[in-house]
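Table S2 (continued). Query chain:
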Amino acid sequence: MKKVLGILPKEENKNFIFFFVFVIIIIFLESLSIGAVFPLLMTILSENYESEKIYIFLIKYLKNLSYENLILYLLLFVSFIFILKNLFIIYLQWWKHGFIYRIQFKLQKKFLEIYLLQLYLDTLKKNTGIKIRNITSETSRFAKYFIAIMTIIIESMVVFAVTLVLFYLNPKVAIAILSLISFLTLCFYIIAKIKTVKWSKLRLIHTGLAMKVLLESLSAIKELKIFNKEKLFLDEYSLQEKKALHLARLFSTFNDSPRVLIEAVMVVTLCISVIFMTNIGIEKKEILATLGIFAIAGFRLFPSTTRIIKSFNELKSNLPSIDLIIQELKLENKIQRNLNNQNKILDFFNYIEFKNVKFKYPGKEQNIIENLNLKIENGSKIALLGESGSGKSTFSNLIIGFLKPDEGQVKIDGVDVFENFNQTKNLFSYVSQETFLLDESITYNVTFKKNLNETEKKKLIDIIEVVNLKDFINKLDDGFETIVGEKGVKISGGQKQRLTIARALFLNKKILILDEPTNELDEENEFEIIEKIFSKFKKNTIFLITHNKKLLKYCEKTLHFKNGKAELISTNEKIL
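Corresponding output:
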């Protein structure tokens, strides 16, 4: 329970008070509904109804009470209690599931928030398939775990209330039934503790691997077809999914077993009870009435006991998921929060400064950036040049604040970019080497907006001209509202790249980082687009990462990376 309360959103704690109030009402209604049946049965079976306790009680308030009226009143009372009880149970189920799924939604949102706001290096530590599994599958298992706890509490109180009534009617039989229920529950709990936890830990492993293979195979369709490796991935997915489903089969079979066993035990117990009561000389009328009430009670105890045992199995089955969720929520302590100030924009007027900056990636011995000291003035146009892996992209990630220097600081106008990431990130536009497009319209992919005002529309058209996409879009039937498909599959590689450039330009931030922005374009388009960008955004600070030395002519300075060192060269003539 302590683990659950640790996961539960604080604003939902108050609902526990409502829940326990509902449980008290359930105890009262269950006791009343079972207890109301006994006087009805005794009256029906009695040869002299006027000697029954219920008649003696009611005749004080109702004059001239006939047998027919007495039976009618008792039937109406029993019907009313059962209808009231079941209506309340329906409401309780509606409230319970609303409570549970609201918690599940908040957990899913919290997980996504954690994964999105993690430090850049931390995001690389966990496979995307595992993250998707955690958000979708494991949070739903917490919901099942929480439902199981609530079910155990509710059904245990039902068993308690019904047994209390039975104990009043026949203590020995009630104790026998309660002992059997407790024994069966304990047996299944012990088995569940041994087996289902083990099965669930294995399920976590195999579902995670299956999700990983699934994502990798669907993300690399072209490569799989070219290399004829469809079967390799299909076989690996089948292997992991079969193992996960086999474990699910074991658990489901085990979880359904209590119903069959308890049904047999209930029938045997009633038969033994009849023999016992006959042997000790109880009247046939009372035996029949007791048998009837115990049959009705058994009708209620049977599903309750089954639910309790199944819920205990669910607790043990989903326990590994609870431990996983607790571990994932601990990541919240490491994420870059400060969300209240993330829309506060820090301006950039003077310079970017690298001061004694050293950085190496985890697990590496050599620094990729070694003791870098550098000042870059606002409005500079800097080319980043060097071999692959020399530190160009690392340099840009340090400027943005994605990475924290091992030593030294990166500052913009004296503000540490890593420590104030949520404010300084508003200064940047970024074009990555990898194109990122949504299965949405051209307009939405560039602007992240469904509807634009007139100013924004003019700005979009202007940017589209800069990246040489005007003619292409004008030829499309739906123009700017054309859906580009998943990952831009409906357009060419060059068109995808130009749309990602357009997105960065549309934002018009003070600092523009272009990481191999035109490597999929033909030379004519490449030069024309770069020239337009540098011409239109003269006041912006631009970093151009490229292997094409011909593009260096657009930059006034070049930062050359080699062996962890970076040298800023004022003229490009030497390199050209």
